[in-house]
Design goal:
The protein is mainly alpha-helical and 103 residues long. The chain contains three helices and no strands. The chain has one domain.
Length: 103
């Protein structure tokens, strides 16, 4: 699961870099003239944006699935160890109270 997430993240970052490079080129071309090159760059930019959106959607699906797994594991742990969970929650609340009262 982690390898898939890392691979998806790397592809997303790569696609976003290409989109940024094409966007910069589009801005440069738009500033000087509106020739046929502009339509070509806009087309490439559209393809890369669509690809980045698709990969971002895939990454979001992976994150949602992983979050559900973690939530289920947490729920199971809390039901199996209620007193330990209460102790941890009380400790975290105490530390947050201490930190917030220092201000």
């Amino acid at each position: 699961m982690s390898e898939l997430t890392n691979e998806s993240r790397a592809r997303l970052v790569s696609d976003l870099k290409v989109v940024l490079a094409d966007a910069e080129e589009l801005l440069r071309l738009t500033a000087s003239d509106a020739s046929g090159k502009l339509a070509d760059v806009r087309g490439r930019l559209g393809v890369h944006v669509d690809s980045a959106k698709l990969r971002l959607g895939e990454l979001e699906d992976v994150v949602v699935a992983r979050t559900k797994e973690v939530a289920k594991a947490t729920d199971t742990y809390v039901h199996e160890h209620p007193w330990q969970s209460i102790g941890v929650a009380a400790g975290v609340a105490f530390l947050l109270g201490m930190l917030s009262s220092r201000r």
